[in-house]
Amino acid sequence: SYELTQPPSVSVSPGQTARITCSGDALPKQYAYWYQQKPGQAPVLVIYKDSERPSGIPERFSGSSSGTTVTLTISGVQAEDEADYYCQSADSSGTYPRVVFGGGTKLTVL
Amino acid sequence: QVQLVQSGAEVKKPGASVKVSCKASGYTFTSYDINWVRQATGQGLEWMGWMNPNSGNTGYAQKFQGRVTMTRNTSISTAYMELSSLRSEDTAVYYCARGDTMVQGVIISYYYMDVWGKGTTVTVSS
To answer: Do A90 and B107 touch (CB under 8 A)?
Structure first.
């Protein structure tokens, strides 16, 4: 079955750049999406279609794609960015679409 | 504004069923899929399946096939997720999420969730 792989944790100091990767064999053929989840809250979409940013999401959030790896980049990290981040893609190998999530990455702001 | 409002917390005994509701407002209910995603305490997001409110068509994750049923009532813009034969491992927060999708047959142009409910806690305990 299709899997997405993320590092369990990433740590950065305030003002630095955080990069969270997500790897999967189908990523060259399917878009990736990123969600931010803070403790006790529902996930929030922060990047869609690899690199598009929804309205209301700060410009410091960006996404990129290269081969089987997509990357969420947070420039000038702020304390409020500390959260879990999940990548998501879609699996089209079956008779209907299936959603796949990565295991999540905990971003710690030191 | 666009929002999904979920039903309240549930406590169930092993073997029972639970039905969670998700009421949509601020958009045309039949124009977007509804997905269900769950999260056990301290764990990641787990996708359960989707439902097309217009057609009633559904697609379930293999793990939940035979135990989950997703339905809707278009007259009140509400989606439902029923999970049966509950066990302790089903204790989790269950989210509904609006799916913004472009799917034609087996071709997926895009598929993501842009609006989420706040979640419903389901506890399975004897």
So the answer is: no
Sign of CA dihedral B107, A89, B30, B34: positive
Banded model confidence at residue A93, pLDDT cuts 50, 70, 90: confident
Q: Which residues of B touch A (CB under 8 A)?
A: 35, 37, 44-47, 50, 59, 61-62, 95, 97, 100-101, 103, 106-108, 110-114, 116-119
Are A45 and B113 within 8 A, CB to CB? yes
Is residue B6 classed exposed, middle or buried when 0-12, 13-18 and 19+ CB atoms within 10 A define those classes? buried
Mean pLDDT across chain A:
96
Q: A103: which chain B residues are within 8 Å (Cβ-Cβ)?
A: 44
Q: Which two tokens stand for residue B3?
A: 């929002």
Amino acid at position A54, single letter: P
